[in-house]
Design goal:
By secondary structure, the protein is an alpha+beta fold. It is built from 8 helices and 9 strands. Strands 5-4-3-2-6 form a 5-stranded antiparallel beta sheet. It has a two-stranded antiparallel sheet with strand order 1-7. A two-stranded antiparallel ribbon has the order 8-9. The chain starts with a strand and ends with a strand.
Length: 268
């Protein structure tokens, strides 16, 4: 009964594994992109950027909100619709650019739906540029926010000692470091998006291999059970001639081509 021999091209296996790993990385990139958008939204809406946690008033400030603790609960002043009425221009700039960062990050996630209609490389390029723009906007918001610490509305909470890049009686709260982490996260996701867009493997057609039926009972020197020497990249073998006394014996006989080809040759 014959044995059917099939071969698999190593380059095709590499391309298949590479594409499978790229899809897994793309899924992780999409998940972290959603996390980045959530972090940006939290940093934008919360008033926990700077606060005075030691005093009884317990004032806290955000990009466009100022909260102070009363006898019963916290009273927060400031609305997003009243952005142009804020005294500090630095707070206005920080609020606008942080809002742009949030909107661009959300739009990058929505662009993932374009993979149904467009090539994945084009979609990754679009999302990468959007995330890069979002990270730059978040950096501008984080840098411009300390320039408003010398305003009157900031000094109501943190005392008259506060100045630019000096918080006075206040201290940094968790939202400001969260916004800085969002900046770093945005640049990393944008870089990964560009890598996914450029590092791709073009699929090649399946190689056509001729299956060969080999009879195990008859195997010549040119064919082996494992396949041909050419397909297995085997080096040429060294053929050892028969001993000298056997050559003398053979020379005394009548030359027969079929008898000579049937002699066993030793392979090293």
């Amino acid at each position: 009964m014959g044995t059917k021999i099939e071969y698999v091209d190593s380059s095709h296996m590499y391309a298949t594994n590479y594409i499978r790993n790229s899809k897994a990385i793309a899924v992780l990139w999409a998940i972290f992109s959603i996390c980045y958008a959530i972090i940006s939204v939290v940093a934008f809406v919360t008033p926990e950027w700077v606060g005075d946690s030691d005093s009884d008033a317990g004032g806290r400030l955000g990009l466009w909100q100022i909260c102070q603790k009363d006898d019963l609960n916290d009273s927060c002043s400031g609305k997003l619709e009243e952005l142009l009425e804020m005294q500090s221009i630095a707070f206005q700039v920080a609020t606008v650019f942080c809002g742009l960062a949030v909107g661009t990050a959300a739009l990058a996630i929505c662009c993932l739906l374009l993979m149904v209609f467009m090539k994945s490389t084009t979609v990754f390029h679009i999302c990468g540029w959007m995330q890069m723009l979002s990270a730059l906007c978040m950096v501008i918001a984080c840098v411009s926010f300390p320039f408003g610490w010398n305003s009157d509305e900031f000094r109501k909470v943190c005392g008259p000692e506060s100045n630019r890049f000096e918080v006075g009686l206040c201290s940094m709260r968790w939202a400001y470091p969260l916004a800085i982490i969002a900046c770093i996260d945005g640049f990393i996701l944008a870089t990964l998006s560009f890598i996914l867009a450029t590092r791709h493997v073009r699929l090649q057609p399946e190689p056509q291999y001729q299956s060969r039926e080999i009879n195990n009972a008859y195997v010549t020197d040119a064919v082996s059970i494992a396949g041909s020497r050419k397909s297995l990249n085997l080096q040429p073998v060294l053929l050892v001639a028969p001993p000298h006394h056997m050559t003398d014996t053979l020379s005394s006989r009548v030359y027969r081509p079929d008898y000579h080809s049937s002699l066993h040759q030793f392979q090293l």
